[in-house]
Amino acid sequence: MSTNQANLFTYSNAEDPVVREVRPVAYPRQRDKYVGFVGPSNHGNAVVCQRNRHPNPKTGEQHYYRKLGGYSFSTPTLSLLDSIGVEVVFIEEIDNDRVLQYSLEQFILDGIETEEIEGDTQMCLTISDAIFEWPRSRTTILKKDGTERGPEALF
C-alpha cells in the first residue's frame, strides 16, 4: 500500500476532534453501567463511548452489535442522550487506533431497529454509516480538568 494513497481525510476540511469529558452518563435502566462521558467538542455537544472492536483478551467480551458490523444504542439511551443535548457520538474503539464519529440524529432517524432477546429495542448503525473514522492519534480527548486522556479503558 502506498503511503500517498488518498482517503476520506484527504478530501475533508473537518477539524480533528477535540472533546472534553465532563461527566459520566449511566444507562437509564442500568445505573451501575455507563454509556460514556458527555461534554463539549469542536463538533458539537458529544458523548464518548468506549467499545471493544475485537473480543477483550482478558474477558472475551465484545460489544454485541460490533459482531454485526456496527454499534447500537437502546431507544431509552438515545432519548436520554437527546434530552441532555448530545449532538455527536464518538465511538472510541479501545483495542485499536480508531474513533468513529456519528450524529445522534443518525441513530434516532436512520438506525436499523433490532430487538435484543432481553431488553429494549436497539437502533444500530454500521461502521460505513460513520460520518468520519478518525485515527485515535488525531483525536484529542480531555479529562474534566483539561489534561489529555490516553486511550486506556475507563469502565
What are its keywords?
single chain; 6-stranded mixed beta sheet; 10% helix; 37% strand
Task: Characterise the protein shown here.
The chain is mostly beta strands and 155 residues long. It has one domain (8-142). It has two helices and eleven strands; from the N terminus they run βββββαββαββββ. It has helices at residues 75-83, 104-110, and strands spanning 18-20, 23-27, 30-39, 46-51, 70-74, 88-93, 98-103, 112-115, 121-126, 132-135, 140-142. The strands form three sheets. A six-stranded mixed beta sheet has the order 2-3-4-6-7-10. Strands 5-9-8 form a three-stranded antiparallel beta sheet. A hairpin with a 5-residue loop joins β8 and β9 (121-126). It is globular and about 40 Å long. The N and C termini lie far apart (36 Å). Mean pLDDT is 85; it is low at 1-7.
Percentage of residues in strands: 35-45%
Q: Which whole number gives the mean pLDDT?
A: 85
Rg, Cα atoms, Å: 15 Å
The coarse silhouette is globular
Secondary-structure element order, as H and E? EEEEEHEEHEEEE
Estimate nothing, just give the exact number of structural domains: 1
What is the share of helical residues? 10-25%
Q: Ranges with pLDDT <50 over ≥5 residues?
A: 1-7
Q: In whole angstroms, how far apart are the ends?
A: 36 Å
| Major sheet characteristics | 6 strands, mixed
* Count of DSSP strands: 11
What is the number of helical segments per DSSP (H or I, 4+ residues)? 2
